[in-house]
Write a structure and sequence with these properties.
The protein is 23% helix and 36% strand. With 175 residues, the chain is α+β, with helices and mostly antiparallel strands. The strands form 2 sheets. It has a 5-stranded antiparallel beta sheet, with helices on one face. A 4-stranded antiparallel beta sheet has the order 4-5-6-7, covered by helices on one side. The radius of gyration is 15 Å and the shape is globular. The two termini are 24 Å apart.
C-alpha cells in the first residue's frame, strides 16, 4: 500500500512545512521511499506527494513521483494487466527503463490520454500532472478499492488517499 496526496494551491498559501508534515503522516503507508514534486505555475503551485511501499520493481528507478517528459505521476495500487499493456506500448515504439506497473500507467496516459483507464484491470488511485495541458488528472478504480478523497477551498484543491493528508496539506481541521 502506498500513500498519495497533493494540491494545486495559490502561491500565497504556499507552505513547505505542510508538505514535510504531510509526508511524515504518510510514512506508514509507504516506508520504503518518500518524495514530492513541486511545479510553480502562474499564481499557483502544483504539489504531488508520494510514500512508497516497494512491491513491483523494488529498485529506486521506480520511485515516485515519476516524471517522464511533461508528465508526472503519483500512484497507489496495482495494474494487474500491466505486462500485456507494456507489450502493446512497445509495439507503438515506447521503451521502458523499469519493470514497474507505474511506468506502464504513465506511458499509457501518454498514449491514450484520460482514456488510459479504459485499458486498466486492477485497483488504483493516481494523479498525473500534465504540464503540456497544465491539467491535473485524477482517477480511481471503479470499485474504489484504492481510496481517493478531495477538498476544494478558497486556498486551492487538495486530494489524498487519506483524509488526514488533506487536512494536513490544507492546514484545515474539518470533519
Amino acid at each position: 500500500m502506498c500513500g498519495i496526496s497533493g494540491s494545486i494551491i495559490k502561491e500565497k498559501f504556499e507552505n513547505s512545512a505542510l508538505i514535510k508534515k504531510t509526508l511524515f503522516l504518510m510514512k506508514r503507508r509507504g516506508p520504503d521511499n518518500q518524495n514530492f514534486f513541486k511545479k510553480k505555475q502562474t499564481n499557483k503551485s502544483v504539489n504531488l506527494l508520494h510514500s512508497r511501499l516497494n512491491i513491483i520493481d523494488v529498485k529506486n528507478r521506480s520511485n515516485q513521483p515519476m516524471t517522464i517528459g511533461e508528465y508526472t505521476l503519483i500512484f497507489n495500487g496495482e495494474i494487474y494487466n500491466y505486462i500485456e499493456l507494456k507489450r502493446k506500448l512497445k509495439k507503438k515504439n515506447y521503451t521502458f527503463k523499469t519493470t514497474s506497473d507505474t511506468e506502464v500507467l504513465l506511458k499509457s496516459y501518454m498514449e491514450y490520454g484520460e482514456k488510459c483507464v479504459e485499458h486498466f484491470i486492477g485497483m488504483w488511485a493516481f494523479a498525473i500532472w500534465d504540464n503540456k495541458k497544465k491539467k491535473l488528472f485524477l482517477s480511481r478504480d471503479i470499485f474504489g478499492e484504492k481510496p481517493l478523497y478531495y477538498f476544494l477551498s478558497n486556498d486551492g484543491f487538495f486530494f489524498g488517499s487519506e483524509i488526514k493528508f488533506i487536512k494536513s496539506l490544507s492546514n484545515k481541521d474539518f470533519k
